[in-house]
Amino acid sequence: MIKKVFNYINLDCIMQPGHEISNHPTSGNLYLTPEGTFKFEQTVSRVKCYERNPHLFEGEYINIGRSKDGDIIINFRKIRATDSAFNAQTFCKGVFNELLSELPSIVNH
After folding, report:
1. Contact call for residues 79 and 51 (beta carbons, < 8 A)
2. pTM for this predicted structure
3. Which uninterrupted H or E stretch holds 100?
4. Which long-range contacts (CB under 8 A, 24 or more apart) does 90-96 make?
5. What are the CA-CA distances from residue 76 to residues 65, 84, 109 (Å)?
6. Burial call 42-78: b when 16+ CB within 10 Å, e when fewer
7. H or E element, residue 53
8. Span 45-90, pLDDT tens digits
């Protein structure tokens, strides 16, 4: 492989709208223009996915979210029921306490 080294070059950057030049890696293409200068053109980033059901509360035992139509969604967090330290009564009380403390403020909004 033959490598060609260019010293002391001027680099023109064409960035996507709303993107500032930073010290973070940016994907794109580097071109040598007919005038002998170099141009970096940032590639279009992937469309960011939107959060479908944003969390209103993230607790130790449950997560509470809201769907697009306004319904409240309650999800249990992952538990290790096979773990010797798991206690069903403690888990149920924890779920109850989190629901009791957070649900009234979420429903009233």
Report:
1. no
2. 0.51
3. helix 88-107
4. 91/61, 94/60, 94/61, 95/61, 95/62
5. 11, 20, 22
6. eeeeeeeeeeeeeebbebebbbbbeeeeeeeeeeeee
7. none
8. 666 666 677 888 999 999 999 888 888 999 999 988 788 888 889 9
Q: In one letter, which amino acid is 53?
A: N
Looking up tokens 């492989």 gives 1
Q: What is the dihedral of CA 74, 78, 81, 82, to 10 degrees?
A: 160
Provide the strand spans (E) within 67-109: 72-76
Which residues have C-beta within 8 Å of that of residue 103, sequence separation ≥ 6?
Answer: 64, 72
CA distance 84 to 73: 30
